[in-house]
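From the methods appendix. Each design record in this collection lists the tokenized structure first, followed by the designed amino acid sequence. Records were kept in a plain field format so they could be parsed without special tools. The example shown here is representative of the layout used throughout.

RECORD:
FOLD TOKENS (101 positions):
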């Protein structure tokens, strides 16, 4: 009976610790499971700065495109980033598998 209690106690401890271990060891798996690390990543400030810079870049590009008279097509560029241009030109096309592009 004591072994069973010890095993159950260890299992409960493991179940309590496992989400944190997964979240810190494999962020992609943690995201799929909806888990978060108990403490922030060391590089979180850098990651946050990079995300902000990417957003500002997209906004600047979209503004520039509009200033040049190049409209943003929400069918092709639903996030209105300006990264995606006309669907068909001399050098671009949407024909084909989007994953391959």
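DESIGN:
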């Amino acid at each position: 009976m004591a072994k069973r209690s010890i095993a159950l106690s260890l299992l409960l401890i493991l179940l309590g610790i496992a989400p944190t271990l997964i979240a810190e060891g494999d962020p992609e798996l943690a995201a799929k499971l909806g888990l978060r690390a108990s403490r922030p990543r060391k590089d979180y400030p850098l990651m946050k700065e990079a995300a902000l810079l990417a957003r500002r870049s997209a906004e600047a590009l979209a503004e520039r495109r509009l200033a040049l008279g190049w409209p943003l097509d929400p069918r092709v560029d639903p996030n209105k980033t300006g990264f995606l241009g006309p669907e068909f030109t001399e050098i671009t096309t949407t024909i084909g598998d989007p994953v391959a592009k």
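APPENDIX NOTE: The two ends are 61 Å apart (CA to CA).
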